[in-house]
Amino acid sequence: MNSLPVPPSGGSPGDGPSGEARGPDQRLGRSRRLTRSSCFQEAFAQQRKWVGRTMVLWLRSGDDAALRLGVVSSRKVGGAVQRTRARRLLRDVFRRNRHRLTGPVDVVLVARAAILRAPPAAREADFLSLARAAGIMADL
Questions:
Q1: Shortest CA distance to 99 belongs to which of 15, 20, 13, 23?
Q2: Nearest alpha carbon to residue 131 among 52, 19, 25
Q3: CA distances from 4 to 1, 7, 71, 93, 122 (A)
Q4: Do the Cβ atoms of 137 and 101 come closer than 8 Å?
Q5: What's the confidence (pLDDT) of residue 12?
Q6: How far apart, in whole angstroms, are the C-alpha atoms of residue 132 and residue 116?
Q7: Radius of gyration for the alpha carbons in the chain, expressed in angstroms and rounded
Q8: Residue closest to 91 by CA, chosen among 112, 77, 108, 74
Q9: What are φ and ψ of residue 111, in 5° steps?
């Protein structure tokens, strides 16, 4: 009765239903995130940071570093809802631009209060300028 058309099978796993390539993998699964507090402490202890208008970028190097992401938002950003939104915005800007990054490092992004008011283009430009300054931008 209400059967939907089934997309043709075939192609590679990264291909869309019509067979065209989707682009870089933008998922941010558990293996691509920093979850242990010791990793965050190592990043802060290494004191490699770059400050932007909407975020602060910290780099962590180590044997297991593999362009993973950790996000932090303090009470300076706002209440619980604002902090959660700020972390979501940080994950999104990293996820969309991860394919542009290179190097054996992990990235910790700390939200600043301005991230909640900044338009998406300003957040992305801020992240890219910090990544360029930190030397983790790939030459595309």
A1: 23
A2: 52
A3: 9, 9, 40, 34, 41
A4: yes
A5: 46
A6: 23
A7: 18
A8: 108
A9: -75, 145
Per residue in 30-54, pLDDT tens?
A: 767 888 899 999 999 999 999 999 9
* Residue 74 exposure: Cα atoms within 13 Å on the Cβ side: 6
Residue 124, CB-side half-sphere exposure with 13 Å CA sphere: 10
Rounded Cα distance, 130 and 53, in Å: 10
User: Encoding tokens for residue 27?
Assistant: 């998922």
Banded model confidence at residue 138, pLDDT cuts 50, 70, 90: confident
Token reading at 133? 């300054």
Question: What separation in angstroms does the CA of 60 have from each of 35, 55, 106, 115, 124?
Answer: 13, 16, 5, 22, 21
Listed range (19-28, 51-60, 100-109) with the worst mean pLDDT: 19-28
Q: Reduced to 3 DSSP states, what percent helix, strand and coil does the chain have, rounded to the nearest 5?
A: 40, 20, 45
CA distance 23 to 84: 28
Report if pTM > 0.85. Answer: no
Taking CA atoms, 57 is separated from 5, 83, 89, 91, in Å, by 46, 17, 14, 12
